[in-house]
Design a protein that fits this description.
There is one protein chain. The protein contains 5 helices and 8 strands, in the order E-E-H-E-E-H-E-H-H-E-H-E-E. It has helices at 18-28, 65-69, 84-89, 100-110, 132-142, and strands at residues 4-6, 13-14, 34-43, 48-50, 81-83, 115-127, 145-146, 152-153. The longest helix has 11 residues, at 18-28. It is globular.
Length: 157
C-alpha cells in the first residue's frame, strides 16, 4: 500500500534506529528512487566488517549506472527502500535470475533511477547463515551455469 517498499532477507535484521534514521534520510532527500544504508556483515563466528567505507568521507553517495558497473559498493539490498512505482514499472524482481536484486539494480539504474546511500550502519547482514542463496551457492558454482542466450559456463573453463 505504501509508496516505498522495504527489503530485508529473512536471516538479517534491522538495527535499532533504522526506521527513524531512514525516515529522516528519505525526508531530507525526497527526489530519489532507491535508498540504501550501510550494514555490518557478520559471520557465523561473530566477526563483523562494515559493508561500505567511503574513503573520501562524503556524508552520502549517489550511484549512477557507470559507478555500479565499476563495482562500487553502495547498493546493498538489506534495508533498501525502493519507490513502489519504480519497482512496478520495471516488473519487480525477475526470479529467473539467481541474484535478482543485482539484476534489478542494474535495470533500475539503466532506466534512470536515482539512488542515494546513507552511510549509517542500520542493518546486520548474516554471512553463512541458512538463507536460500547462501545455502546453495557452492552447488551453483560447482556445476555448469546456464546463462541467457544459450551461453554455458563450466567450472574450470
Amino acid at each position: 500500500q505504501g509508496a516505498l517498499l522495504g527489503l530485508l532477507d529473512a536471516d538479517d535484521e534491522l538495527l535499532p534506529g533504522y526506521v527513524a534514521t531512514m525516515s529522516a534520510f528519505v525526508d531530507a532527500h525526497p527526489d530519489y528512487d532507491i535508498y540504501t544504508c550501510n550494514a555490518w556483515l557478520e559471520t557465523i563466528d561473530g566477526v563483523r566488517t562494515r559493508y561500505a567505507e567511503d574513503p573520501e568521507g562524503r556524508p552520502w553517495v549517489s550511484m549512477k549506472l557507470a559507478d555500479y558497473l565499476r563495482g562500487e559498493r553502495y547498493l546493498f539490498a538489506g534495508g533498501a527502500l525502493i519507490r513502489r512505482e519504480l519497482f512496478d514499472s520495471l516488473g519487480g524482481f525477475r526470479p529467473e535470475y539467481y541474484c535478482e536484486d543485482v539484476d534489478f539494480w542494474g535495470r533500475a539504474l539503466a532506466a534512470g533511477a536515482r539512488h542515494i546511500f546513507c552511510p549509517e550502519v542500520l542493518v546486520r547482514y548474516n554471512i553463512g547463515g541458512a538463507g536460500q542463496k547462501t545455502a546453495d551457492i557452492a552447488a551453483k558454482i560447482d556445476g555448469t551455469i546456464e546463462a541467457p542466450h544459450g551461453m554455458r559456463i563450466e567450472r574450470g573453463a
